[in-house]
Amino acid sequence: MSSSEVISNADQKMVKSIDSFKSSLAKIRTGRAHTGILEHIQIDYYGNPTPISQVAALGLADARTITVTPWEKPMIQAVEKAIRDSDLGLNPATQGNVIRVPMPALTEERRKDLAKLVKSEGEDAKIAIRNLRREANEGLKKLTKDKLISEDEERRSQDDVQKRTDKFVAEVDKLVQDKEKEIMTV
């Protein structure tokens, strides 16, 4: 293994951390409706927990209403119950074959709580990125110890890893800032 492979591996893992952070941000609800809010809900599909997107079509009726159309008529009650029992505080209503999920307006207190949650998720993402930096630096030290790279190359590679870490941490900060602005906008 070379220093470039260690750096490339760390870079790929940092990109995955950012992607994971983005998907967790998508689950945090803002004043507007979007189908990503329901993505993590599991439906009891004939005894098996199944993601809602695999048993129903998700769509938007308007800026504050999500529509859920189960593909099988017997699943309507199961889908509605799963949405109601989720931690989102939503109250779905069935109209024929379509479940309408209105998004209630957020109170100021709830907006602040969501902003704190976004900051917490951001800190977790930054910790994950810094842990990847530490792993990469340990890998570089091991390569130096095994005499596969020189100390100068190790130092240059560690500087490169640090620059990449700073770039990803800055991206997390920007995502947090954008999401907070989105949440706090009434």
TrEMBL record:
GO CC, alphabetical: cytosol
Subcellular localization, as worded in the UniProt entry: Cytoplasm
GO molecular function, one term: ribosomal large subunit binding
Domain Ribosome recycling factor: 21-184
Coiled-coil zones: none
CDD domains: RRF (cd00520)
Entries under NCBIfam families matching the protein: frr
UniProt protein name: Ribosome-recycling factor
Record family assignment: Belongs to the RRF family.
Domain of life: Bacteria
Pfam families found in the cross-reference section: RRF
GO biological process: cytoplasmic translational termination
PANTHER family the record matches: MITOCHONDRIAL RIBOSOME RECYCLING FACTOR PSEUDO 1, RIBOSOME RECYCLING FACTOR
SUPFAM superfamilies (alphabetical): Ribosome recycling factor, RRF
Main location group: cytoplasm
Ranges annotated as spanning the membrane: none
Source organism per UniProt: Polynucleobacter kasalickyi
